[in-house]
Design goal:
By secondary structure, the chain is α+β, with helices and mostly antiparallel strands. It contains ten helices and seven strands. It is 41% helix and 18% strand. The N and C termini lie far apart (47 Å).
Length: 211
């Protein structure tokens, strides 16, 4: 059930934790940083949170004004959860926690890794050569399609199909995370089918290595 627990502390940090300090709350915020999502999509991204627990966190975050529900495209479109303007202010905090947590121990297996998480890492940690020609990658992560554009030394990530792509990669978020950590494993991933590439291998190598 939703919780109304409070630290009863007037410090801004304590008041912030009253809003987003419950288990899974900040991970919900993380999942909404790149694109609004339906309940089913959030469940897929956070498989270790039960449906009831996730529903509780969503109700709490909505009650506190961190997220809101809206329809996509038309009134008959699917209902999605999105960050409010106030909720969007959590982005640098969440990203800072992501960076800080890289040095923490990995969780025991089996563990999960969402598409949003690995794409945020790719966007914020890749350091492409500013002099390199621009390119676009169509990225299929467990059936979720993303456009990754590299230009002038910057990586941009957008949800949906690119109008035109130089390369196309199909894999899982966890495999992509492993490849970003160790690009030398790319040949093995392509050989065993855990990753499928259409296009130039060197371009994909540049993307994974931040070159």
């Amino acid at each position: 059930m939703p919780t109304n627990r409070s630290y009863r502390d007037s410090c801004g940090m304590a008041r912030a934790l009253d809003v987003v300090g419950e288990r899974w709350a900040l991970l919900v915020v993380r999942e909404l940083l790149l694109v609004p999502q339906r309940f089913s999509e959030l469940r897929h991204a956070l498989p270790n949170a039960s449906s009831n627990l996730l529903a509780d966190r969503l109700r709490e975050l909505e009650h506190h004004g961190v997220i809101h529900r809206r329809k996509l495209a038309t009134d008959s479109g699917p209902q999605v959860y999105d960050l409010t303007a106030w909720g969007r202010k959590l982005e640098p905090i969440v990203l800072a926690l992501c960076d800080w947590g890289i040095d923490a121990p990995n969780p025991p297996e089996p563990s999960s890794l969402s598409a949003t998480s690995v794409l945020i890492f790719l966007r914020d940690h890749a350091r492409p050569d500013p002099a390199a020609p621009p390119y676009v990658c169509r990225l299929d992560l467990d059936g979720s399609i993303w456009t990754v554009s590299v230009d002038i030394g910057k990586v941009q990530v957008e949800y949906g199909e690119p109008p035109k792509a130089d390369i196309s990669l199909r894999t899982t978020p966890k495999t992509l995370g492993n490849l970003l950590a160790n690009p030398a494993e790319l040949d093995a991933a392509l050989a065993d089918g855990s990753a499928t590439l259409v296009g130039d291998l060197q371009t994909l190598t540049w993307l994974l290595s931040g070159g």
